[in-house]
Design goal:
With 336 residues, this protein is α+β, with helices and mostly antiparallel strands. Helices cover 63% and strands 8% of the residues. The longest helix is centred in the N-terminal third of the chain and has 42 residues. The protein is elongated. The protein starts with a helix and ends in a 7-residue tail after the last helix.
């Protein structure tokens, strides 16, 4: 090839270039480094350099083309390997978060990604104003911050269904908390939830579902905490475990508010503010931009309609539980 280039100036044709690309690709697959490949090629080039060639520029042009072809083939193999590894990683994460696959096989695959199921794991999930995809600026920024502080010590970061996900050993709560705070800062007002630690491969999926449930509860109840802990919200899954019973409680306790002039929304907002304020009327009135007298009138009207007095400790728990249930069940918008 070099002799032809020296004699005629003819550069390597398409078939020759493709053979060089294939050679570079095979070298990458076999584990040869790019440096070793180029050194080997240049050594062969020196040996094959045409004796007494006068068209050195033409020969060098051919050498340049061959080196470029080898590197393109090498990079092609690397890109394919990265895509295959990423596909395997995504498949593993899906199986892990949704509890699919045999636990033993999951454990074997987990070791490739630095996870050891001999330890309990916990999952943090962060969401922002817009869905995230792998490679977006926010996920890259959060991953860089977490890895920069903690390294890649048994931590797995990814995106799932438009959210950021961090899986870490359960005894490394500092990692999950830092991830949640970084996600909040990067999204300028997003929210994160941290599930409880659970053992085994199935424990990761369990913790993930807890974090998702915490985000859902926070959205329905209007919780403003930027970082939520599933362990601190366990009462809500308990209250809604029997959704039919909760729906019956809401309808029985709050149903009479449907007869109120203008609908039940103002009265529900009054009860929510009153209970959130610890039943302190002045604080609740301030939150609703009402006078204390107007708030008291609303509470009396609720008592008249429902038969339950929000200011009476004997009625308060039932009313507050019903109000929580209404917010979780989106009543009365989704009243059945």
């Amino acid at each position: 090839m070099l002799a032809r280039a020296a004699a005629t100036g003819q550069e390597p044709d398409a078939a020759e270039v493709e053979r060089l690309r294939s050679f570079g690709e095979q070298a990458a697959v076999s584990g040869t480094t790019l440096r070793a490949l180029v050194v080997h090629h240049l050594t062969r080039t020196r040996a094959a350099w045409p004796a007494g060639a006068t068209g050195a520029d033409r020969v060098l042009a051919a050498v340049q083309l061959t080196v470029e072809a080898l590197c393109e083939g090498y990079e092609r193999a690397q890109q394919l390997a990265v895509r295959e590894q990423e596909a395997a990683r995504r498949e593993f994460i899906d199986d892990l978060l949704y509890g699919r696959g045999e636990p033993v096989f999951l454990a074997e695959r987990a070791e490739q990604f630095g996870l050891r199921f001999s330890h309990a794991h916990a999952v943090a999930v962060a969401e922002g104003p817009a869905p995230y995809a792998e490679g977006d600026p926010v996920p890259r920024r959060v991953e860089s911050a977490v890895n920069g502080r903690f390294g890649e010590r048994s931590i797995l970061l990814t995106t799932k269904d438009g959210r950021l996900v961090c899986i870490a050993p359960g005894d490394q709560q500092d990692v999950l908390t830092y991830f949640a705070k970084q996600a909040y800062a990067a999204t300028d007002g997003g929210r994160a939830a941290i599930g409880r630690p659970h053992p085994g491969a199935g424990g990761v999926g369990h913790s993930y579902q807890e974090a998702l449930q915490a985000l859902d509860v926070a959205s329905r109840l209007g919780l403003e905490d930027p970082v939520l802990y599933a362990a601190g919200l366990l009462v809500y899954p308990v209250l809604t475990r029997d959704r039919q019973a909760m729906a019956d409680l809401v309808r029985t306790t709050l149903g009479p508010l449907l007869k109120a002039r203008g609908g039940p929304e103002h009265h529900l907002a009054t009860l929510t503010a009153y209970f959130d304020a610890g039943c302190v009327t002045t604080q609740a009135a301030r939150h609703l931009s009402l006078s204390v007298r107007a708030l008291t009138y609303r509470l009396e009207r609720i008592h008249q309609l429902t038969g339950s007095d929000p200011t009476d400790p004997r009625h308060r728990y039932t009313l507050q539980t019903a109000v929580i249930g209404a917010r979780i069940l989106d009543w009365p918008a989704r009243a059945s």
